[in-house]
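Bumping my old thread because nobody answered last time. Still need a sequence for this structure:
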């Protein structure tokens, strides 16, 4: 009887108890976030979460803020960017503040939107830190929007209406769905729900099917996110050909130079051995030598191509003409999968054979790409012909073939030069 009376009194004040539980939960959460910020290794900062569509007139005071926790993450006093963006300086992973093996975690600057490309096409070696970078960007966005401090020197971002992540591999065998189907089903949900103010992260989309189909699907999804959804995000892939796919520039604002909708970057690494055909020490159980390249992971987000190991090679007319200083560089040349095979302990003969087959495929693919470029680009063909004729003029002069031969070679060169001018004008 007394128990029932106590229950009735408790229920009668259920609103009071509900408010007390809610207050205790909020207090516990805030104390946990504050304790995590105080106990964290390295610099922690209070993020700035801004209006997704700021008004330039109403934002004059914020634009003049000094650099630091209250200033812009890019360290400038320029007007705040219009549109969605995510700018972080020296961002670290909140759960991996110390690197593996006792080393320090390598922080990175990440800029999405707001004068930078909205999407980063992220390449790099296996185990190079791509997935970790995707996770730390998404976690930083969550921490910022719940009011927590973030493991970075500075973070400024616009409020995101959702974070969509496609990562990992699993099937749903009970309903007959393969790993690839589940992957595309989740990607389809992302494309249907993500908006311009969303943050997306995709890790190795298209790996569950044939290389050609997977690369085609990945390219189409990247193009949709860049030009239809127009959201901020990161797209990690081992399909290096995506970095050469056309991604037209986003419209410029206020007369500023336009940034590409998507730009390639990579996780830097140092490569040694294997490239010149001489074997490096193998890590497999079979002993002996392996021709696989040894890769040292630097975990640094890089937007310029790193020089390759080995002696520098003289440029050929084709490599000079294919180079374009106006392109955003940053794609990793390869994924160095045989290095992971060596680290994982595959027998050295298996690793060596894999490296040999990989080099053969790369040589075949590069030759096919050069032939395709020559076949499809009349300007490139005309320029190469001009180079060949110029070499003929030089050879005739060096060999002392006489005035007539030199004059004929010079006339051929001038004709090729005119053809190149006409091809350039037509382009």
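Sorry it took so long. Here it is:
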């Amino acid at each position: 009887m007394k128990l029932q009376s106590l229950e009735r009194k408790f229920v009668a004040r259920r609103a009071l108890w509900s408010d007390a539980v809610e207050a205790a939960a909020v207090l516990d959460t805030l104390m946990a976030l504050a304790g995590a910020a105080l106990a964290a290794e390295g610099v922690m900062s209070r993020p700035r979460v801004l209006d997704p569509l700021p008004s330039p007139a109403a934002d004059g005071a914020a634009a003049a803020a000094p650099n630091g926790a209250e200033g812009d993450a890019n360290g400038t006093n320029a007007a705040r960017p219009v549109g969605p963006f995510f700018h972080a300086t020296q961002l670290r992973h909140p759960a991996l503040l110390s690197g593996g093996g006792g080393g320090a975690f390598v922080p990175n600057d990440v800029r999405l939107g707001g004068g930078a490309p909205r999407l980063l096409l992220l390449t790099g070696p296996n185990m190079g830190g791509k997935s970790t970078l995707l996770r730390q960007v998404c976690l930083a966005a969550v921490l910022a929007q719940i009011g927590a401090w973030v493991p970075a020197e500075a973070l400024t971002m616009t409020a995101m209406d959702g974070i969509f992540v496609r990562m990992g591999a699993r099937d749903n065998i009970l309903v007959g769905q393969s790993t690839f189907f589940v992957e595309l089903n989740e990607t389809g949900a992302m494309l249907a729900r993500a908006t311009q103010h969303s943050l997306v992260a995709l890790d190795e989309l298209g790996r569950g099917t044939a290389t050609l189909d997977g690369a085609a699907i990945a390219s189409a999804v990247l193009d949709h996110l860049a030009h239809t959804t127009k959201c901020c995000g990161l797209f990690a892939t081992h399909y290096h050909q995506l970095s050469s796919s056309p991604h037209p520039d986003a419209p410029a604002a206020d007369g500023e130079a336009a940034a590409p909708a998507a730009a390639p970057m990579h996780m830097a690494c140092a490569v040694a051995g294997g490239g010149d055909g001489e074997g490096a020490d193998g890590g497999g159980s079979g002993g002996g030598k392996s021709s696989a390249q040894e890769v040292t992971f630097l975990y640094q987000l890089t937007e310029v191509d790193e020089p390759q190991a080995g002696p520098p090679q003289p440029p050929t007319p084709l490599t000079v003409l294919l180079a374009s200083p106006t392109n955003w560089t940053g794609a990793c040349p390869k994924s160095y999968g045989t290095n992971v095979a060596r680290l994982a302990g595959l027998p050295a003969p298996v690793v060596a054979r894999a490296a040999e087959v990989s080099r053969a495929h790369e040589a075949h693919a590069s030759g096919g790409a050069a032939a395709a470029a020559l076949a499809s680009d009349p300007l490139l063909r005309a320029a190469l012909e001009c180079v060949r004729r110029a070499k003929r003029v030089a050879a005739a002069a060096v060999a002392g073939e006489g005035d007539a031969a030199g004059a004929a070679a010079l006339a051929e060169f001038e004709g090729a030069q005119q053809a190149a001018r006409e091809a350039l004008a037509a382009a």
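Confidence is low (pLDDT under 50) at residues 55-77, 250-257, 275-290, 305-329. Let me know if any region looks off to you.
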